[in-house]
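Course assignment 3, question 2. Fill in each field.
Student: A.L.
Task: Predict the tertiary structure for the chain below.
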Amino acid sequence: MKKTHVAVLMGGVSSEHEVSLKSGAMVSGNIDRAKYDVTQVVITQEGHWKFPGEDLLDIYHALPRLRELKVDCVFIALHGPFGEDGRLQGMFDALGMPYTGSGCAASALAMDKIHSKAVARQAGVRVADQFLLTRQEWDANRAAILARVEKEFDYPCLIKSPCQGSSIGMAIPKDVEHFKKSLLEVFMYGDLVMIEKFINGTEVTCAVLDVEPGDPPRALPVTEICPVDSEFFDYHAKYTPGACNEITPARISPEVTKKVQAVAERVHHVIGCSGFSRSDFILDGDDPVWIEVNTIPGMTETSLYPQAAAAAGIAFPQMLSLFIEEALARK
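Answer field:
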C-alpha cells in the first residue's frame, strides 16, 4: 500500500528557530515510518527552504518542489511569527495542501495575545487585567505611565510583547527601575506592549486534542509547571532539560482540574482551533486565569503536550498519526 508522504517543516525566521529545529527533529524521528514517508524541510533564518541533499530555494521555488515531491501533508513544526501566526497556513490553504494544526484565522488570532484575550474575555473566560502601551506614549509621558502602573497594578507586574512565543519578549519587573529597563528590552520586539497585572499562583497548562470529526475537543490531563531556577516559565525553563519540573497530573483538586479543562476546551472552540492546542493558566486560588493558547505547542523532548498525551495513554508516534490523519480528513 502506498504510504502517505509527509513534509516536516521546521526552523523558520522567528526568534524560536532553534526550538523549532528540535521540535521538527523529534517529529521526524517519531512519525510511524510503516505508514508515512517523511521529508525534512528546514527554513533558514533568512527564509530559504532546504530540502535534503538539495540547494537552498526561495519560497517561490520551494512550493513547486513540494508538489514535485508529491507531498500529501505538511506537518508544521514552526513556532512564532511566520510559522505559527497564520501566514503559512493561509498559503497552504490557497494551494489546497493539507497541513497539521489550526487554520489561518485561528492561528493568527491565537498568536495575537491582545485580540485572543479579548475573544476569551467575551466568551466568559477570566483573564488578567491589562492596558496597552506604545513606544510613542512611553516617550511622551513616562511619569504618567509609571503612576498608572503603580495605581492599577503595583509591582511586580508583567510586560509582554503581544505576538511572540516561548516567553520571548516578556518580563516581570519588581520595581520602577526594573520596569523602565525591562520595558525598553521588550520594545525591541515591537512598538506595542501589554502591561498586565501579576497574579501569584500555580502555573498549569492543559492540552486539547481535537482529531475526531463531529466529536467535541477533549482536554488531556492538566500539567503543573514548577521552574527550578527561573522565576517563571521562561525560555530557559521551557527548553533546558532539568530546568523545570512538570507534574502530570497536576497536584490540584479534581474540581479545579475540571475548571481548567473546561476553559481549555472553551478557548480552543472560540478561537477556532483545529487538531490540537495547549492553553496556559495561572491559578488564583481555585480560579483559573487564562494566559494564552498555543496552536503549535512544542514537540521537543521537554515539551508539555507530548507529556500530557502520554499521561492520557497516547504514545508520541500515535499522537503524530492522529494529527496527520486529522489534517488529511480536513482537506
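Instructor remarks: The chain has a mean pLDDT of 93. Residues 254-271 form the longest helix (18 residues).
Grade: pending
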